[in-house]
């Protein structure tokens, strides 16, 4: 698939078929994605691929902790709640998703269930937990590299018929993820990618988020025209 077509067609998938993803497919995805740009070829990343009972334990304990009112315990520093234009964009996609799923504004049980789906990594059959070497903290450069790898994973997966959603809710309790997946202390857990074969009957999978026009965030400097 040509790159532009691949990017334009890719979407976040929030409903998955309960169909196993072969290890060989995940290996091929990572093999492609690891060609992502890396500052001075430092390759600060690690990928921990979870499926089966370990993944089920992570999502069960993560969900139980968050339902029980436990505080978020992520390795990376959070910006807190979104405000202003960032909050507006967050609300806009939430409205689209709730509309597609038929979740009314005052339907608190269904809205809560949607939040819990995030804590369960949307019940995807595979989760790729992305980490980087702690010795590189603090620093945005390794975060940038992880972002490049992450997007490479998402595009390589889509090219092979798999959907994904980059999902911070699934690692709200990074301590649980670290314990179950046996992730070394010298690695920082940044995010995870929930992955599987898309369920085309899941209404939210058809939702596409809006993007601002280029004139809202792009400046051209020094061009004659």
TrEMBL record:
SUPFAM superfamilies: FMN-dependent nitroreductase-like
Keywords associated with the record: Oxidoreductase
GO MF assignments: oxidoreductase activity
Domain Nitroreductase: 8-197
Keyword Oxidoreductase attributed: yes
Top-level taxon of origin: Bacteria
UniProt keyword Oxidoreductase present: yes
Entries under InterPro entries matching the protein: Nitroreductase, Nitroreductase-like
Record-stated family: Belongs to the nitroreductase family.
Protein name: Nitroreductase
Organism of origin: Bradyrhizobium rifense
């Amino acid at each position: 698939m040509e790159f532009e077509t691949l990017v334009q067609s890719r979407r976040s998938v929030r409903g998955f078929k309960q169909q196993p993803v072969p290890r060989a497919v995940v290996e091929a995805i990572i093999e492609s994605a690891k060609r992502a740009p890396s500052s001075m070829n430092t390759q600060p990343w690690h990928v921990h691929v979870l499926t089966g009972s370990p993944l089920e334990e992570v999502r069960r304990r993560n969900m139980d902790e968050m339902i029980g009112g436990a505080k978020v315990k992520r390795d990376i520093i959070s910006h807190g709640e979104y405000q202003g234009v960032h909050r507006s964009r967050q609300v806009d996609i939430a409205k689209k998703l709730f509309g597609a799923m038929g979740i009314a504004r005052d339907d608190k049980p269904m809205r809560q269930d949607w939040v819990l789906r995030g804590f369960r990594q949307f019940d995807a059959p595979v989760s790729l937990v992305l980490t980087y070497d702690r010795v590189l903290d603090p620093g945005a450069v390794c975060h940038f590299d992880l972002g490049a790898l992450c997007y490479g994973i998402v595009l390589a997966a889509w090219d092979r018929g798999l959907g994904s959603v980059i999902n911070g809710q699934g690692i709200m309790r990074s301590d649980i993820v670290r314990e179950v997946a046996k992730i070394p202390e010298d690695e920082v857990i940044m995010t995870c990618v929930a992955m599987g074969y898309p369920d085309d009957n899941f209404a939210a999978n058809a939702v596409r988020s809006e993007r601002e026009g280029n004139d809202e965030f792009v400046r051209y400097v020094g061009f004659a025209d």
